[in-house]
Design brief:
Blueprint (H helix, E strand, L loop, with lengths): L12 E8 L5 H17 L3 E4 L6 H10 L1 E4 L11 E4 L7 H8 L3 E4 L3 H15 L3 E5 L5 H7 L7 E4 L2 H6 L8 E5 L5 H14 L13 H14 L4 E5 L5 H12 L3 E5 L15 E6 L5 H14 L1 E8 L11 H4 L1
Parallel strand pairs: 1-11, 1-12, 2-3, 2-4, 4-5, 6-7, 6-8, 9-10, 9-11
């Protein structure tokens, strides 16, 4: 061990269990690359409707390169500059408004979110009423609701709401979900729907995305062996918030932090094993920064815990891929 200070006090040992996979998923990589390639090809500014992904570090980094983030298209002046829609997806009214204003726009919506949109459209064409399992107000949910006429989808957030839901016709019913939900919470809601409506049509393939699933499974494994779980991610990141919740349920004191500067060392006063992960929109540089911060106060050993291997990649929007 090395001395912590001139008083020759040794640093206490700390084992860090590093979740794998962690951090960026394929949809986030595609979205960030879309903004960076647009800046490289067309120059600043590039306008982005909503945060391209929900991570403060990423957004601030792109702002420094010339991206301008807005919440609504009405905030953008008449311009020839590129306009990009975020990874979370948008209601159909947004590209329609963009076309009316002659914006040069392209869509960085995650393909797995687009899959949910297409599923909902197919169910609607087949005359089914659709339950959308998700969190009210989240941009992905707003975007999915905005794919179809009002009333075509009903948002259900809890098992209690699933119990109370009254469909127009139990024989014509389907459900889709937000891609970044808790696996366990969603399973409970789905179980209620299937018990009440045995003929409800499920997605052909799970809507909760591979990255959300893999990161939650990694956290379950690591949190069960840890005293404390540290999740790098922003508070408005649904998948990051879910990781902290999963860690708490799995037996570790769990904290969601933006970066190493947000760490309170008092949380680790009685800890000998700390789990570390990062939400799907949090870059690896934040993980390294946290380990460096821990190493200032502890004699750190790092063990990577592999839960799954990810090989998924997504192509850039066509206008940027050439």
């Amino acid at each position: 061990m090395t001395a912590e200070n001139s008083g020759n006090s040794a640093k206490p040992p700390l084992k860090v269990l590093l979740c794998s996979p962690r951090g960026f998923c394929a949809g986030v990589v595609r979205a960030i690359d879309s903004v960076e390639q647009a800046l490289k090809r067309y120059g600043a500014p590039v306008y982005v409707r909503h945060e391209i992904v929900h991570n403060r570090y990423v957004v601030e980094s792109l702002k420094a390169k010339g991206a301008i983030f807005v919440e609504e298209l009405s905030e953008i002046p008449d311009t020839k500059a590129p306009v990009i829609f975020s990874a979370h997806g948008v209601p159909k009214s947004i590209p329609e408004e963009s076309k009316r204003r002659n914006f040069f726009h392209f869509d960085a919506t995650c393909p797995l979110v687009t899959k949910v949109h297409r599923e909902a459209e197919i169910h609607h064409k087949r005359g089914r009423e659709i339950v959308l399992i998700g969190h009210a107000g989240h941009p992905e949910v707003v975007g999915t609701l905005g794919q179809l006429p009002e009333g075509a989808l009903t948002l259900v957030q809890t098992e209690a709401e699933a119990e109370a839901f009254q469909p127009r016709d139990v024989s014509k019913l389907a459900y889709v979900t937000q891609t970044t939900l808790s696996l366990d919470d969603t399973a409970g809601i789905v179980a209620v729907l299937k018990r009440r409506f045995p003929d409800i049509v499920a997605p052909h393939k799970e809507d909760i995305c591979y990255a959300t699933t893999n990161r939650q499974e990694a956290v379950k494994s690591v949190a069960a062996k840890s005293d404390v779980l540290l999740v790098l991610g922003s508070a408005n990141s649904s998948n990051s918030v879910r990781l902290a919740e999963v860690g708490l349920r799995s037996g570790a004191q769990s904290y969601l932090i933006d970066d190493a500067d947000s760490l309170d060392l008092a949380w680790l006063a009685r800890a000998s094993v700390v789990g570390v992960t990062a939400g799907a929109s949090a870059p690896e540089v934040l993980v390294q920064g946290l380990i460096d911060r821990l190493s200032q106060s502890f004699e750190v050993t790092v063990e990577e815990v592999d839960a799954a291997r990810e090989t998924v990649t997504f192509k850039l929007p066509r206008v940027l891929a050439g």
